[in-house]
Amino acid sequence: MTAGLSRIESPTTVLGPGDDAAVISAPDGRVVASTDLLLEHRHFRRDWSTANDIGHKAAARNFADIAAMGAQPTSLLVGLAAPAETELSWVDGLVAGFAEECAEVGAQVVGGDISASAEILLSVTALGDLAGRAPVTLSGARAGQVVAVTGLLGWAAAGFAVLSRGFRSPVQVVNAHRRPQPPYAEGIRAAEAGATSMTDISDGLIADLGHIAAGSGVRIDLRADALAAPAKLRDVASALNVDPMSWVLGGGDDYGLVATFPTFAATPAGWTVIGMVSEGEGVRVDGLRYADGGHEHFR
To answer: How confident is the model over 180-213, as pLDDT tens digits?
Structure first.
């Protein structure tokens, strides 16, 4: 796998792929790390997504976690288990997807491992650098602060619904599921603007804000009018007889970012204020609990 990766370089890579282990510099003295598993038929389907799409998405899922801490992604470690009959061209496409997503953030695949398996399994670990900043965690939200979001909401869930019904369009919606585009740079911008808590939206807005509410010991109140589904999602939802707000509030896999800021004025441009932090617990939409809280791994 290393041949297709050697052309991508990162300034923090001292020794890249090809040796027993990589050597990564840590200018900050701390390393932000996140790991993820992607299992065929559960996290991706080869009849829905190309190998290149899957490589992009596998990297994006992990880089979004790094960005959500207010850090810059630097490196990726990739483990691949696959059936012996897997076509080499498919693996080449996967590697290209990883390399291209790394290039988006100036990171590099620095190593990994391969093994035989009955089905394809990817294990991906991302590393990042805080550049002297404090990490933005789940535990810093306080009553009186504002909640804001950046990136897409509900598009990947809509794409999943479309693909599940056997359709391949609208392409814009389907591609949001196949190849998410996290707003990586916004994580650092939010940290520099004084974000008090932040997370990426992987399991759904309600579920992921629930992690902030629990970690911070607060209640989060969202406004439905600030979360109105765009026309494209409303059109798709109408065709499938689905409430589009179920995608906006409960759909994950877009990997946008949601954060809390001290004041409205502190919220960076490009972020949309969608609610407030208050005393209490849990997440409410217009004062009510939302029935579908998003993805749960063992549900």
So the answer is: 999 999 999 999 999 999 999 999 999 999 999 9
Q: Annotated binding site: which residue ranges?
A: 20, 34-36, 43, 65, 112-113, 200, 202-203, 253
Share of the chain above pLDDT 70, in %: 94
CA distance 41 to 145: 40
At the top level of CATH, which class does the domain 2-129 belong to? alpha beta
Which parts are annotated binding residues for substrate? 43, 253
Listed by start position, the domains of the chain span: 2-129, 146-285
What is the Cα–Cα distance from 151 to 181, expressed in whole angstroms?
Answer: 8
CATH architecture of 146-285: Alpha-Beta Complex (3.90)
Can you say which residues are annotated as belonging to the binding site for Mg(2+)?
20, 34-36, 65, 113, 200, 203
Euclidean distance between CA atoms 187 and 270, whole angstroms: 12
pTM: 0.92
